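Reopening this one. Same input as before:
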Amino acid sequence: MERKTGIVSTIGPVLFVDEGIERAIAAGVDVARFNFSHAEQEGLEKIAEYFQRVIDAREKAGRDVKIMQDLQGPKIRLGCLLNNMLVVKAGDIITLDYQMFDKCMTSDGGLKLPVQYNLAEKVKVGENIFLYDGKVQAVVTEIASDTSIKIEAKNDGILMSRKGINLPDTDFGNDVFPEKDVKDLTWGATQPIDWVAVSFIHNAENLRDIRKRMVDLGIGDRKIVAKIETRQATHDNAVMEEIVKEADIIMVARGDMAYEVGFEKVPTVQRKLVGLCRKHGKPCIVATQTMMSMMETPEPSRAETSDVANAYITGATHVMTSDETTNGKYPIETIDAMDKVLRYTEANVKQTPVEDILSSVGLA
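Same output, byte for byte:
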């Protein structure tokens, strides 16, 4: 029986080799996601080659596999660290300096790190900051110069080169479409891309802006995937519903959302978004850590199987893999496992009525 729920898989290094892309599509991937946060590491010419491999594989499989270009958005990242990694202790005072971004951390024993955005122009003393997916939590202690800030680490942890930073308390205004995205979108206009994912949006106006840009580039027919992960996009139900109405597809981007709005709120926000997408007839992707344990093990955890099954039961149209199929040990097994869970659940469980989903979170 044909599977109803789509599988979106991020295409990364572990699938670039050994016919990994081809095997992933044969295993059941419906949307091949390319994360342009890391595009410079591979180079655009190589990415074009990977696009062609997807096209060749989908023709062989006889399936309409979509290609998604996922734009970075205003994601702030560390620059180059000495030896690619830094051990941090609670109480360490770290300087984040935009002026250093094109350089690498020096070996003078200090904790002065390059960062790709001038945080000195935006942050305030006392605001929280999460580095490397929250592995190091810190607070801003000083605006040290026109281009640098100082932060105090609140826990022991590690940092790595080019990993992301979340600043849930900081107001970045409407600066959600940086120059890197403009360049990547322009390059992508010449490529066989079906869906364009927009990161860290705040409101429906952001989507109208990128839609106009895409029309101007001659790619207005491509679907826009709105990634919901910011406090601004989720704090008000009316704002959230306007975004759903404006977007072609919604992605529940649970990774950054956990740091932007609080991990305890993620399940409720997910339920709201899935319900609103069903109300307005929009596809909805549930993303992040769907089968994270399969980075290291050949079988998912029982919680992960429930997570994937419940995505379908509540009415999500797609589930997504991220690290599992970019750097994990068992990328094809992950897709197989997701496929098995979805097929069995679809055959044996009825979806919850949309009215019940909306009512349960106060939206009906």
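So the earlier flakiness isn't reproducible anymore. For the record, The mean pLDDT is 94.
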